[in-house]
Specification:
heterodimer; A: 120 residues; globular; B: mainly beta
């Protein structure tokens, strides 16, 4: 089954304790991205990756790190979590990276099930 | 950077009526505008998208229009049904040096009353 998976789905942790949220897709997608969703603020992009070893900052990258060593995986790392990082996190992927030419399709982003993180 | 504003934040309609959600964006270089629907407790799912070289696109009861000059785009849902109740997000994609960022609006909570 084609899907985007995230682990863990729920996590309660304490300030400063490093954590990693994994994201994996089995669709051979080029583009992967992390978002956080907060009430009243919608979805905000944290980091994205156009392909293996190509990553860049989204709108709210502070306090997060990512890596893309393999095409299928795009982990989100919080080196020193703080309470303001309490949020619902979504990983997403799309077949193709949105480029200037935008020819053809494959830009639909498929979202993972979400990870609810609480930092106390 | 890109800024996307979405209105209204909540919308209540009677079943069978139409619903319209409007979004404006700030960067004229944005070239791709998807709309996502998120039901309660679920992940967002794409319902329709439009590229900057197209003015309107329809898919059954939903349609999106784009006005590049005014930098706004709208989602139209006709003959609304209770299953249309959800939060809807618009977004705009802009090409940065290393790739494409996607900026979302704040969302519109739509309630369709039977």
């Amino acid at each position: 089954e084609a899907q985007v998976t995230q682990n863990p789905r729920y996590l309660i942790t304490v300030t400063g304790k490093k954590l990693t949220v994994t994201c994996s897709q089995n669709m051979n997608h080029e583009y992967m991205s992390w978002y956080r969703q907060d009430p009243g603020l919608g979805l905000r992009q944290i980091y994205y990756s156009m392909n293996v070893e190509v990553t860049d900052k989204g709108d709210v990258p502070e306090g997060y790190k990512v890596s893309r060593k393999e095409k299928r995986n795009f982990p989100l790392i919080l080196e020193s979590p703080s309470p303001n990082q309490t949020s619902l996190y979504f990983c997403a992927s799309s077949l193709r990276a949105m480029t200037g030419g935008m020819r053809g399709g494959g830009y639909e982003q498929y979202f993972g099930p979400g990870t609810r993180l609480t930092v106390t | 950077g890109e800024n996307v504003e979405q209105h209204p934040s909540t919308l209540s309609v009677q079943e069978g009526d139409s619903a319209v959600i409007k979004c404006t964006y700030s960067d004229s270089a944005s070239n791709y505008f998807p709309w996502y629907k998120q039901e309660l407790g679920k992940r967002p799912q794409l319902i329709i998208d439009i590229r900057s070289n197209v003015g309107e696109k329809k898919d059954q009861r939903i349609a999106v229009t784009l006005n590049k000059t005014a930098k706004h785009f709208s989602l139209h849902i006709t003959e609304t049904q209770p299953e249309d109740s959800a939060v809807y997000f618009c977004a705009a994609s802009i090409k940065e040096a290393a790739g494409n960022k996607l900026t979302f609006g704040g969302g519109t909570r739509v309630l369709v009353k039977p």
